[in-house]
Amino acid sequence: MYRLLIVDDEPVIVNGLVLLFQDNTEFELEVCKAYSAKEALEMAKKMKLDILVSDIRMPQMSGLQLVDEINYYWPHCRSILLTGYSEFDYVHEALRKKVDNYILKTEGIELIFEAVQRSIAKLDEENRSRVQEEKARMHLEIAVPLLKQELLRKIAGGEDLLRLLIQPRYEEVHFQIMPDRPAFFLIGRMTLNEVERASELRQAVQRSFLNYLPASFHCECSVMQDDVLYWMLQPGAELLGRFRGENASNGASWNSITMYMKGILELVQNECEELLGVAVSFGISDNLAGSWDTAGQQYEKLHSLLKARAALGQTMVIADLGKVNPHEENMFEYGRMEQDEMKLFVIDQIQRYVNEHLSGDVSLTAIAEEVHFNPSYLSRFYKQATGHNLLEYIQTKRLEGAIRLMQDTNLKLNEIATRVGFDSPSYFTTFFKKKMGVSPQEYRNTQA
Predict the structure, then answer these.
(1) Could you give phi then psi for residue 421, rounded to 5 degrees?
(2) Do the two domains 2-130 and 163-335 of this chain adopt the same fold?
(3) How far apart, in whole angstroms, are the C-alpha atoms of residue 116 and residue 246?
(4) 147-152 long-range CB contacts below 8 Å, 24 or more apart?
(5) Where in the chain are the domains?
(6) Which one-letter DSSP state was computed for residue 218?
(7) How far apart are CA 238 and CA 329, in angstroms?
(8) Angstrom distance (rounded) from CA 99 to CA 110
(9) How many CB atoms within 10 Å of residue 359?
(10) 255 touches 261 (CB < 8 A)
(11) For residue 283, what are the CA distances in angstroms to 25, 164, 306, 323?
């Protein structure tokens, strides 16, 4: 039911109109009255108003001014102005304010009834439109996320994104990933101790990832079967440009993007472990640009790899599909290796990498990339498996390498320092003396 307010400074007119509307069975209206603009405004502050029928000339405030004031509180209120005068200025102003009708009092009640009927029709139409718009908005809010989830699952299942996006079903889906530009996906797998909190923890991991993800990435996310978290990511043009450099090849720049993402994933893993008490492993796909039809195969490979690693007790993995060789993939195939065997295999990988890269980068980050671990987890894993710190092993190998080179070659001490990973000869001297009790030159002299 709509509410009609009749306003005029002449009580006889107001009361007469109220009775006429109440007696007219064609209307289902709650009819209210006010004898001044001020009284009408007080009512507007206390109740919803749908239709205003007001005299245009009143003391203190005109009907035109009253329309403005009423619309401030009730923007959808329809207005009809009555006057005893036919004045062009009033008509022009009334039209400018989008007043529904401007009626001379002398024209009779039937014209007023008709004007109110038209206002009711407009209110009905506006209400229908609002309901339809709200339904459409709710449909989008509910349907679009589901369609995006469906789309991501189809991509992970092996369907080509280019073909999917041209389907009418996905026309209304604003998918942020452009198929003609570089993109990749991540999967995340949680190691849960509290299965009953799985849904809550999944949402917390999603939030953590999105909190750390810079605005330079476009992202779409979902949850796959087996509670696997899934993110489709696309670096923006500016970010790609920053990593590409002047002379870097496309492959080199993409490797830099992947390394950057691994740093972000390290933050997410550490936060999830510290704040949520949950270990998360991640898998990173290759660049999908030009090869969207391989997304399904890549998903299966990463999923299998993370599942196999989890079965072997590895809980904070960062597996980069571009760095996984077929031999390693076969070694970690589900069920082919026991936990103890796996530990020996990974420790051998770590130590072999250190020995082969002694003169280069043997940081935790570099070694972690080789064995697909979170750097912090790598350090703990090595200590638990061997009883020694990884840093101690690296220092031991550097010392052994320096001693061997001093004994077997005539290389200068600064060259030896470089070969065993020291950029500064003075730091090499300090390190050597701390370990051996004598300086490198004194040690070499004793071997002469």
Answers:
(1) 95, 20
(2) no
(3) 72
(4) 147/172, 147/173, 148/173, 148/175, 148/220, 148/222, 149/222, 149/223, 151/175, 152/220, 152/221, 152/222, 152/224, 152/230, 152/232
(5) 2-130, 163-335, 395-447
(6) E
(7) 34
(8) 18
(9) 14
(10) no
(11) 72, 24, 7, 11
What tens digit of pLDDT does each residue of 46-79 get?
A: 999 999 999 988 888 988 899 999 999 999 999 9
Does the structure show a pLDDT above 90 at 9?
Answer: yes
In the sheet that holds 184-191, the strands lie side by side as 217-223, 229-235, 184-191, 279-284, 318-320
Q: What pLDDT shows up at residue 331?
A: 60
CA–CA distance, 154 with 161 (Å, rounded to integer) = 8
Instruction: Classify strands 51-55 and 2-7 as parallel, antiparallel or unpaired.
Output: parallel
Q: Phi-psi category of 60—alpha, beta or left, where left has phi over 0 and alpha has psi -120 to 50?
A: left
**DSSP H or E stretch at residue 156:** helix 109-156
pLDDT in tens, 410-430: 899 999 999 999 888 889 999
pTM of the entire structure?
Answer: 0.65
Q: Looking at residue 195, what DSSP letter applies?
A: G
In CATH, which of 3.30.70, 1.10.357, 1.10.3470, 3.30.1380 is domain 163-335?
3.30.70
CB 371 within 8 A of CB 385: no
Residue 98 carries which DSSP code?
T
Torsion region of 126: left, alpha or beta (phi above 0 gives left; psi -120 to 50 gives alpha): alpha
pLDDT of residue 251: 65
Mean pLDDT value across the chain: 87
CA-atom Rg of the chain in angstroms: 38
- Helix residue spans in 177-294 (DSSP H): 198-212, 237-244, 250-271
Sign of CA dihedral 193, 231, 282, 362: negative
Q: Is domain 2-130 given the CATH code 3.40.50.2300 in the classification?
A: yes
The pLDDT value given to residue 246: 47
Who's near 266: CB < 8 A, 6+ residues apart?
318, 374, 375, 376
pLDDT at residue 249 is higher than 60: no
Fold annotation for 395-447 = Arc Repressor Mutant, subunit A (1.10.10)
- β-pairing, 78-83 vs 101-104, is parallel
Cα 62 to Cα 93: distance, rounded to the nearest angstrom:
12
